[in-house]
Amino acid sequence: MSRQTAFKTRDGETAFLTAYDTALKSWPVPYEELDIPTCFGTTHVIVTGPADAPPLVLLHGYMATSTMWLPNIADFSRQHRVYAIDVMGQASRSVPGDPIRDRADFVTWLTATLDGLRLGRISLVGMSFGGWIALGYAIAAPERVQKLVLLSIGGLQPMARQFTLRGMLMTLVPTRFTVKSFMHWLGLEENPADPDTRGLETSWS
Q: At the fourth CATH level, which superfamily is domain 10-157?
């Protein structure tokens, strides 16, 4: 049986995972990586923080990965056991199986992931698209969510036309130029003096 992959080519997969691992080398605190099987594929999770601390689950934004939490993870993990989850269906180290089609599927997927991590009630933080997933989960499974934090939540208002068009162009024609153009439009540019943005240009190569 051939190995499942979310990538169209082996070269593309290698380039993406190399960039992911390069970003993870800057993770400022000790961590471990787990792969949790679910009915929608294998969910990749970065785990850090004291083993006996309260659980804090992070869901990243659209077209991002769990490495987006790099600037915050040291603070998050001081008093929490943090689980940064690569959202299924997004480019990441999570490996998709059956497609996720709607919010109910995201609830089923996240429940299976939390069960695989042996987590009960959690604090849940979602950014943008991750916030949309987190809110839907808190509504569907309130018994699993002790605290909910939503950052720039997406999905509550219609998307800006420019965001949709630029995002579609980047997805359909994923070149260095289209990716950089979209990221620059979002305000993400590399500043050598800022360690939080260092390496952005390299990751878009």
A: Alpha/Beta hydrolase fold, catalytic domain (3.40.50.1820)
